[in-house]
Amino acid sequence: MADLKYYDIIKKPVVTEKSMNVMAEKKYTFLVHPDATKTQVKEAVEKMFEGTKVKSVNTMNQDGKKKRRGMVVGKTAKTKKAIVSLTEDSKDIEIFQGL
Q: φ, ψ for residue 18 (rounded to 5)?
């Protein structure tokens, strides 16, 4: 496993209707590196977004989908999603404010 830095762990935020609804409960969804652990995700969020305190992290592994092009069958890359819950006294994450 490669040595992951905190800026390599979080790839991008997940913007869906369901993830926007749980933002009222201070839960934010990110696409993360597949080899990242929950503690690494927690440290990355606290370092990247100042003033945030993470209460818990839930992760989901998603296998790649099968895709066909003619008779050739392949798979897309597997991904990992993390739902980060912040504490009550924590600041909100600014990246989601304009959405």
A: -70, -40
Sign of the torsion formed by the C-alpha atoms of 96, 22, 53 and 63: negative
CA 41, CA 53: separation in Å to the nearest integer?
12
Neighbouring C-beta atoms of residue 33, cutoff 10 Å: 18
C-alpha to C-alpha distance for 41 and 29, rounded to whole angstroms: 11
Instruction: Report domain extents, the chain.
Output: 6-66+73-87
pLDDT digits (tens, 9 = 90+) for 37-55: 999 999 999 999 999 999 9
CATH code of the region 6-66+73-87: 3.30.70.330
- In the predicted model, what is the mean pLDDT of the chain? 92
For residue 36, what are its two tokens? 């990242």
In degrees rounded to 5, what are phi and psi of residue 90? -80, 155
